[in-house]
Write a structure and sequence with these properties.
single chain; 188 residues; alpha/beta; Rossmann fold; 6 helices; 6 strands; 16% strand
């Protein structure tokens, strides 16, 4: 049973998404919602993210909307280091802080500001150690930053003590078609 899941995926810039009005965000959120609903029916209690712009923050929004129906669902944010948002644009910082303010748990794995890339690896390892599974928006044919987290999770899967759930480009295409169908139905 998956009680705690690590949710991650592409950063917004890896998907060519530069603002919060991009139509692709709704597609990603719908795909995440579908997968999280299935996991909630099976006993999911916690969703953990690293707080990175893109799939992780959009996933947090999905968790917040699901809390209306599943009030026991919790969101944890485990950042790799302190002040990860410090050099982001103000609009992105405001969005990030709105997520942080609503989260049930927030902490930094490294108790210092950014020092080096090893802090991301340390956060990934700590997060994998403290979750039952990974929910990853990622496609093997479109590499990006999630490949490192997936590789670390795959090692655990080989040992038989961890699960990896993928949302691929095919899943996103299916979600896009579902969204279009809903919009057509709502129109008439």
């Amino acid at each position: 049973m998956v009680k705690t899941i690590l949710l991650s995926g592409y950063k917004s810039h890896e998907l060519g998404i530069w603002d919060q009005k991009h139509p692709g965000i709704s597609v990603i959120k719908l795909a995440l919602e579908g997968r999280l609903r299935t996991l909630l029916d099976e006993g999911l209690q916690w969703v953990i993210i690293g707080g990175q712009p893109g799939v992780e923050l959009w996933g947090a929004e999905v968790v917040f909307s699901l809390k209306e129906e599943f009030p026991d669902l919790k969101l944890g944010v485990l950042t790799p280091f302190l002040e990860q948002e410090k050099n982001w644009k103000e609009e992105r910082q405001d969005y990030y802080n709105s997520i942080i303010d609503q989260a049930d748990f927030v902490d930094a794995v490294s108790k210092k500001p950014y020092i080096g890339p090893w802090q991301f690896k340390a956060r990934d390892e700590f997060s994998l150690d403290n979750t039952d599974a990974l929910l990853l928006v990622y496609d093997e044919e479109r590499e990006g930053s999630p490949k490192f987290l997936k590789a670390a999770a795959d090692k655990r899967t080989e040992r038989g003590d961890y699960a990896v759930f993928m949302i691929t480009m095919y899943d996103l295409q299916t979600a896009a078609e579902e969204l279009q169908e809903r919009e057509r139905t709502d129109f008439y």
